[in-house]
Design a protein that fits this description.
The protein has about 70 residues and is mainly alpha-helical. It folds into 2 domains: about 35 residues; about 30 residues, no CATH class. The chain is about 65% helix and about 0% strand. It is built from 4 helices and no strands. The chain is flat.
Length: about 70
Amino acid sequence: MAETFAEVHRRLVVDKEAMRKIIAEVNAEMGFVPNPDATIQKVREMMRAEGIRAEDNIFSCGIIAARDEE
């Protein structure tokens, strides 16, 4: 019988190495390669280069709007 989500969660909380392995497998399937040199400053610079202005709060506005839809 398959494990329930709660059972898997409890097991993974205890076995962090198993969780790290699963995350690595999922990242590999998605083609995601973590960049150890990534910083929040670099992300902000990239966003500014794309014309995204922090003062517009577009991400926060989207989250708030989604909450209001419920």
